[in-house]
Amino acid sequence: MRLLRHPSAPPAILASVYLALALTYGFVNPLYESTDEIRHFRYVRYLQVFHALPEQTSDPARNAQAHHPPIYYLAAAVASAWVPTSEADPVFFEPPVNPYWGFRYYEVSTDNKAQYLHGPEEAWPFHGNVLIAWISRWVSTLFGLGVVLVTFRLGREAFPDRPALAFGATAFVGFNPNFLHLASSINNDVPAAFFGALALLASVRILRHGNSNRRAVLLGLALALGMMSKTITAALLAPGLLAIALAARRNRSWPSAWRAAAIGGVCFALISGWWFVRNLRLYGDLMGTTNYVAVWRGQADEARLFREMLSNLPYAWTTLWGRFGYGQIPLPDWMYRAGGALLGFAILGWVIDLTLRPAINRRAKDTKSGKPDSGVPRPDSSSLVSSARNIPGLHRDTGAGSSAPIWATLLTALLAGLLAWVALMLTIPATANARMIFAAFPALGLLVTGGLIGWVHGRREIWIGWGLSAMMLALALIALIGYLAPAYARPRILDPRAVAAEAKPARANLAGIAEIVGYRVSAAQGLPGEAVDVTVYWQPLATTGTPVTVFVHLLDADGIVIAQRDTYPGLGNYLTTAWRPSAIFADTYRVFIPDTAYAPDSADWHVGLYDATSGARLGVFDTSGDQVGDSAGLGSFTLNARPGDAPNATAVNFGGKIQLIGYQLDRRAVAPGEKFTLTAYWRAIAPESDYWAFGHVVAPDGSSWSISDSVILPPATQWKGGDVIAEARTFTLAPGTPPGLYDLDFGVTRVDANGQDRLIILAPDGHQVDDHFPLTKIRVTGGG
User: Fold this and answer.
1) Using an 8 Å Cβ cutoff, are 536 and 634 in contact?
2) In the 8-state DSSP scheme, what is residue 741?
3) pLDDT digits (tens, 9 = 90+) for 154-192
4) Mean pLDDT score of the chain, rounded to an integer?
5) How many distinct helices (H) and strands (E) make up the chain?
6) Which one is predicted more confidently, 624 or 589?
């Protein structure tokens, strides 16, 4: 434990571990995958090419985060200015998008988490745009290193006789997975955190040593540079002013406070004043965010924005610990619960330190002096700040009076950051990410560590520092190894003997590009609404010039697709353009059977490849070289009917008024000009008027080829609770309907004296889904 007390060893250890983690986080995270990273990159390139600041336009691709101040982008642009570029390195670079990214984004998985397609052009040795992007990332990493070092210095400056506070707080900040993720990405949040930490350090020095011209200059410069990194950093003006006022009050020198505030204000204006003038000239407002805010807000009213802010709070909480990419790579719930428990213990520790500990100490003192203890705590009429002098966690003199003003300043920094963040979320819902309070992270780290230390005292504080550091390091490693790295990893190459042992044998050659050498299906039967895992063992034979897509279909006897998945190989991480010929790998495709799938039914699994650009499928050939189709059959599947009060039982809630509980078709394969009947089964929830049901036969291009739209009879207001109402409607396919698969789109409309409008479908958790949905599919036969 003596290591903690050595002046240079702790920051060196923390900095080294941080650097190793941040560089590794960056290595496993492909370029442009972090939040807004491509737009931050365009800002850097804009500065390099046009030698001017970007201006906000109506073109999202050219906006390049133009509403942000330029400090970070200037640093990255200068650091990478020596990199040679060509016409192949455009300013407004747009990497190819993975169309399947974010599949069930809210789930913990490795399924299509990459937003972009990453090819060999991103591989070592780096050059052009790729090298500029990596250098820009490393600039962020260096700013993050500064945050780590300044946070440690802040802790030692604030509490020089309590090294555990500095050690624990620095680990809390530097080993936070979300911080590490962004410290290895192109963004301006980490530079803002660096200057915010400097502003807090300057504020603490003012509290410790009093107001002076030099300290006021340092505070003003830190706030100005923070503001010029990200405008939300201006929230730290509140703790800075509080520190100036508390120092003046302690020294009974209010003129020094006015002088310090004035000097700091002049420094702030000299550094950042031009930015406000520019914004006012270009956009008509000092912050220059009116146009940007308008894009996000649209026509939303204040009540809706408030509801959205509240609904985003659970998501925002997860980002305090780690939620990678654009939020599509969450950590498991137990990790977020562990973080919640940590903060809960810290808060409870503060309660103990502020309420119970003084009484315990008074009793101990009375016992030692031989005075009887009445058992009733003595009243204390002083304020929280002055009473804190009697608390072991706060009373230790820092050389300039009680440490309570320092804690008050840190708490003010955190609260100011949180209030600014809430105000931002009320304006722009997309800002529900804890990176918005990175500038206050050092204050949060010290407050959390201080609360945990409230459970102990004396030499045992060191154990809290080590324990918190170990916990945050474990969190960072688990998030990295268990979730971030696997999300972007290529499939593991398999030994053919392992394939033979675990897979059902198959042999299908897909146009000489790949062979299917085996498969596994997680279930031979299932119900609508369930998921089935189909694992395909691929042996690549050749690479392709453009990526080829995998499809997995569950087909019934009529050729109707019951369920399907489309994805690039490797679940988006192993394109056919980068395949290693002969190296066998396995892909597991999770296929969700729709809730309204028609059952009972018998079906077969089919897998194949197609060109997403043209839609053309690749042929499947047998061992003699003859084409046997355009997909490979991989076993049968039985779809059982879900139990319920109606055929094809389901539960579609239309606006909390009526519920579709099932349906039935008299036929599912229909020729042009022919009729078919849909019987819908209804149950009342809280009907208020008459309702019309509408059904459309919709082609893949969105065109309608049959419509059935009529009132549901008997009227819903006459239904009795618990009754099941069967209502039939007839569809007639238009002559000339092209053959193929069509969606039977379905919905409900309210009709009364006030007009009509579609009822919104509500999910089980109450959120709104849509005003119509694809009930099932039909096949149009014949030549049209």
Assistant:
1) yes
2) E
3) 999 999 988 899 999 999 999 999 999 999 999 999 999
4) 88
5) 22, 24
6) 589
Instruction: Identify the residue whose tokens are 């500990």.
Output: 357
Torsion of CA 325, 327, 332, 335, to 10 degrees: 90
Query: Does residue 664 contact residue 679 with C-beta atoms inside 8 Å?
Result: yes
Q: pLDDT for 570-612, tens place per residue?
A: 999 999 999 999 999 999 999 999 989 999 999 999 999 999 8
Sequence-separated contacts (24+) of 471-475 with Cβ below 8 Å: 471/338, 471/342, 472/171, 472/172, 472/175, 472/176, 473/17, 473/171, 473/175, 475/175, 475/176, 475/177, 475/321, 475/322, 475/335, 475/338, 475/339
- Residue 385 has a CB neighbour count (10 Å cut-off) of 14
Report how far residue 388's alpha carbon sits from residue 403's, in angstroms, rounded to the nearest whole number.
8
Neighbours of 299 (CB within 10 A): 6
**From CA 562, how far away is CA 569, in angstroms rounded?**
22
Q: What angle do CA 292, 294, 300 make, to 5 degrees?
A: 140
Q: What is the CA radius of gyration of the chain?
A: 32
Burial 259-284, CB ≥16 within 10 A → b, else e? bbbebbeebbeebbeebeeebeeebe
Measured distance CA(51)–CA(77) in Å, rounded: 10
User: In the chain, what's the furthest Cα-to-Cα distance?
Assistant: 105
Return the residue matching tokens 């290895």: 184
CB count within 10 Å of CB 341 equals 10
* Residue the block writes with tokens 């790998």: 585
